[in-house]
């Protein structure tokens, strides 16, 4: 859909489209036109112009989210374009801002905010090459270190050392870029560009390294902490983390699979869980908590009741919750504030149908995202599900992959979903009747793709036609077989794969050694 451009924006596009002329003319451009020219250059992927605009930035702040977001002159949001050409030009321009002397402008820049960039699956830029969060972390760290080396080796203008710019960024650290990022953080005090970590994600990293780097990030500034794949963090490590480091501004926490396992709890572990709950309670700004694939049977209340701020987002997928856990959630003070809830991997219709619908009813006025994957929702439960979802008029996203539903049941459900006015995204399962007779749920990865693809396409078209007839073309309906898109995993999947193979090899070696000892 075309977005209207103002005459000012059309003029800006014409100006930057001739890169050579635009670069020569920057010194005579009014300061307040720089943001307009930046967005126009970004849209046209004029890397050289972007570089020079940033190198000569005349304003106090440079906020990528605001510069690329909806503006008066051009309403289209470009913040989801992680174009490699544009972002590299931006960051090298920032380095050269520090080195540029003499500059036509007084250096006023104090804050650069890169956190507004959104990583998405489909890139609309011409170069078709994106620069994800990991690569941005890598490049900024590299540029900071290069800058320091250059300043130490060159006779620089004394004013250069007085420049101090806070660069707000979402860091993403794995084994592969760990050393580089550590060096950049260690030398932060000496560098004119100060890396300020607002959000930190860690994958494929030894626990010792994670503990070391998290202290370097200045945890007092951290708003989001994601410890996701292949960081072997268990409850005792989490307790040590919370006892040794304070996170006063933390709003969002994601923990790796199997952080908690109550099946092997001792009296000491129970005390540890209480301590962790109390530490979470001290994080007064925490509103998002993800603990997927932990075993938390009967312990949700102990973990969540100390929280003083109601949660807006909760992911307890595949956490083996029992009736007491669900009853606590349905009656807790969090329920009236939950905007996003993931209860995947729980047999909701059989274990606690009435409690679940009570939970839905209480959160219906605010709930925007609901994920019920692999929940054993069958055709006989569809009417009940429709009844439960009916009050959820603010629902924007509904994901229910992996449930044994027929194409007939899906059509019935889609007819209802058309009535939810805010709905934008639906992830639905491959209909059960597209699989061979006798398939068992949850379907294992090996059998997941063994369905009648032609029949599936036919059903998918019928479902989209239901949306079309109801004038709901705004709803995106899809079946991502192996789960929703994760930009971070996509960017580092080679490293993730290598790490998994290494872990598997180590496990086999340990098993072989044990067998040899036995024999």
UniProtKB/TrEMBL annotation:
Q: Does the keyword Repeat apply?
A: yes
Q: Which GO terms describe its cellular component?
A: cytoplasm
Q: Keywords in UniProt for this one?
A: Leucine-rich repeat, Repeat
Signal peptide start-end: none
Q: Which InterPro entries match?
A: LRR_dom_sf, LRRC14/PRAME
Which family does the UniProt entry place this protein in?
Belongs to the PRAME family. LRRC14 subfamily.
| PANTHER family according to UniProt | LEUCINE-RICH REPEAT-CONTAINING PROTEIN 14B, SIMILAR TO PREFERENTIALLY EXPRESSED ANTIGEN IN MELANOMA-LIKE 3
Report the protein name in the record.
Leucine-rich repeat-containing protein 14B
Q: Which organism is it from?
A: Caloenas nicobarica (Nicobar pigeon)
């Amino acid at each position: 859909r075309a977005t209207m451009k103002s005459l000012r924006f059309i003029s800006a596009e014409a100006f930057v489209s001739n890169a050579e002329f635009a670069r020569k003319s920057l010194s005579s451009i009014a300061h307040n036109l720089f943001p307009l020219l930046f967005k126009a250059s970004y849209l046209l992927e004029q890397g050289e112009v972007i570089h020079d605009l940033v190198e000569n930035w005349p304003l106090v702040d440079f906020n990528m989210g605001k510069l690329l977001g909806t503006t008066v002159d051009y309403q289209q949001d470009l913040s989801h374009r992680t174009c490699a050409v544009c972002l590299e030009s931006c960051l090298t321009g920032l380095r050269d801002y520090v080195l540029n002397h003499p500059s036509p402008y007084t250096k006023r820049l104090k804050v650069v905010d890169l956190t507004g960039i959104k990583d998405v699956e489909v890139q609309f830029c011409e170069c078709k090459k994106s620069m994800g969060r990991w690569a941005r972390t890598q490049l900024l760290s590299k540029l900071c270190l290069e800058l320091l080396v250059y300043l130490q080796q060159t006779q620089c203008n004394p004013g250069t050392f007085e420049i101090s710019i806070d660069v707000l960024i979402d860091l993403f650290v794995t084994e592969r870029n760990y050393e580089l990022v550590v060096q950049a953080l260690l030398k932060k005090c000496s560098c004119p560009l100060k890396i300020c970590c607002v959000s930190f994600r860690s994958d494929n990293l030894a626990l010792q390294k994670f503990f070391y780097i998290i202290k370097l990030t200045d945890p007092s500034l951290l708003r989001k902490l994601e410890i996701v794949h292949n960081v072997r963090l268990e409850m005792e490590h989490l307790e040590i983390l919370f006892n040794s480091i304070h996170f006063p501004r933390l709003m969002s926490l994601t923990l790796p699979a199997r952080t908690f396992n109550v099946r092997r709890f001792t009296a000491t572990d129970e005390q540890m869980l209480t301590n962790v709950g109390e530490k979470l309670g001290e994080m007064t700004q925490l509103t998002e908590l993800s603990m997927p694939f932990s075993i938390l049977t009967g312990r949700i209340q102990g973990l969540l009741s100390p929280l003083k701020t109601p949660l807006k987002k909760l992911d307890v997928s595949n956490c083996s919750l029992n009736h007491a856990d669900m009853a606590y959630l349905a009656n807790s003070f969090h329920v009236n504030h939950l905007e996003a809830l993931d209860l995947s991997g729980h047999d909701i219709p059989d274990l606690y149908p009435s409690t679940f619908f009570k939970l839905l009813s209480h959160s219906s006025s605010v709930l925007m995202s609901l994920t019920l994957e692999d929940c054993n929702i069958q055709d006989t439960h569809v009417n009940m599900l429709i009844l439960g979802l009916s009050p959820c008029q603010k629902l924007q996203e509904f994901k229910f992959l992996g449930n044994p539903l027929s194409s007939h049941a899906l059509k019935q459900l889609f007819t209802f979903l058309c009535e939810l006015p805010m709905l934008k995204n639906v992830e639905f399962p491959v209909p059960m009747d597209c699989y061979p007779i006798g398939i068992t749920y949850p379907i294992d990865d090996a059998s997941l793709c063994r369905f009648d693809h032609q029949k599936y396409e036919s059903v998918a078209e019928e479902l989209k036609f239901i949306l079309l007839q109801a004038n709901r073309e705004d709803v995106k309906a899809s079946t991502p077989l192996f789960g929703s898109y994760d930009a971070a995993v996509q960017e580092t999947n080679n490293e993730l794969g290598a790490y998994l193979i290494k872990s598997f090899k180590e496990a086999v070696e340990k098993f072989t050694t044990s067998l040899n000892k036995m024999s």
